[in-house]
Amino acid sequence: MRGLTKRFGDVTAVDDLTFTVRPGIVTGFLGPNGAGKSTTMRMILGLDRPTAGAALIDGTPYHDLKQPLRTVGALLDAKWVHPNRSAKAHLQWMAASNGIPGTRVDEVLRLVGLSEVAGKKAGGFSLGMAQRLGLAGALLGDPKVLLFDEPVNGLDPEGIVWIRKFMQRLAAEGRTVLVSSHLLSEMALTAEHLVVIGRGRLISDSPVQDFVDRASEAGVRVRSPQLGALQEALTAKGIAFREDGADAGGAALIVAGATTDVVGQVAGDNGIVLHELSAQRGSLEDAFMKLTGDDVQYHADVMGGAL
Ligand SMILES: Nc1ncnc2c1ncn2[C@@H]1O[C@H](COP(=O)(O)OP(=O)(O)OP(=O)(O)O)[C@@H](O)[C@H]1O
Question: What's the fold here for domain 2-214?
Fold first, then answer.
């Protein structure tokens, strides 16, 4: 993506986005609802025309690709198949209209585990099966680049794990895999690299772990029967802390930005007994909220808990 921009009237859906997606790993494309992920993917696929900038595949715009299906496969919306067509007929039609040999149809059906239901009408498929059929279609041309737009939405846990593993396998084969999601927790399990956007703008382009490390609050949770003395000792050392809600073990302190070594040393120096000294890490979703901050178009409470 090079300065990729898309405006719909007054709305700037994608705002001067520049990033590169590399082969061999799964790249997560993360952002809250409305951040511009789908619009970006549609521009990569030539379905929307950029207002400015360009989305290039190996240096070439989608429209200039000689054999698009052999270069890029996409899973955008699983429900667009003809309901009365069988899975196999649907793929045969796709293959025929793209100059792909019919023998490839059985291969992709096997790859996604649909061989046994190949003759059944796609209209009767569960979401998980429809998703597999969409994936089979994306793989027909054996493309080097694959795009997935929110592929796990609505899937059951088994379906989620299956598609996650499948995407990782495709990347391990050396393909370029870009997968969008609004859930950081899901991306942390699926992707190695993360491109994060908010309100169409690039927020972060880094390995998943770096993103989490940068955003999440590292700290120490400490419990003690002499909590008052510990608070005094920490204050004397100029170390900030806050009280954490009491659990079964009693009241605790959270010492942000400190290590267990430091807090343990302060306690030891002052002869304070500790019942717990544990390193804490902020949750992934906290990290996401923190970094997308003002860029979140709809806040979590409006979205019923989902970002
Ligand atoms: N065809 C269109 N006409 C007008 N506005 C649009 C159009 N398509 C998208 N938008 C707007 O562009 C912004 C980005 O939308 P987009 O669907 O790309 O976001 P997204 O990150 O994919 O979110 P979601 O996960 O909710 O689909 C939103 O404000 C949306 O309302």
Answer: Rossmann fold (3.40.50)
Q: pLDDT, tens digit, for every residue of 165-211?
A: 999 999 999 999 999 998 888 898 999 999 999 889 998 999 998 88
In testing the pocket of ligand 1, which one of 1, 14, 15, 38 has its CB within 8 Å of the most ligand atoms?
Answer: 38
ipTM of the complex in this document? 0.94
Atom number in ligand 1 closest to CA 32: 21
* Ligand 1 atom showing the smallest separation from residue 40 Cα: 18
**Beta-sheet strands, E only, within 32-181:** 52-54, 56-57, 60-61, 72-75, 145-149, 176-181
- Whole-angstrom distance, CA of residue 234 vs CA of residue 216: 23
For 217-281, CATH number out of 3.30.70, 1.10.3470, 3.40.50, 1.10.3860 equals: 3.30.70
- Helix segments in 112-203, DSSP class H: 127-139, 157-172, 184-190
Give the Cα separation of 174 and 157 in Å (integer): 26
CA–CA gap between residue 54 and residue 242 (Å, rounded): 48
The domain limits of the chain are 2-214, 217-281
Q: Quick: pLDDT tens for 112-146.
A: 999 999 999 888 888 889 889 999 999 999 999 99
Ligand 1 pocket, residues with Cβ under 6 angstroms: 8, 11, 13, 31, 33-39, 182
pLDDT tens for each residue of 266-307: 999 999 999 999 988 766 677 677 667 655 444 443 333 333
In angstroms, what is the span from residue 167 Cα to ligand 1's centroid?
25
pLDDT of residue 301: 39
Record the tokens describing residue 105, joined without a space: 């149809």
Cross-strand bridge partners of residue 281: 218
Q: How far is the CA of 36 from the centre of ligand 1 (A)?
A: 6
Give the Cα separation of 237 and 181 in Å (integer).
44
Residue that wins the pLDDT comparison between 170 and 85: 170
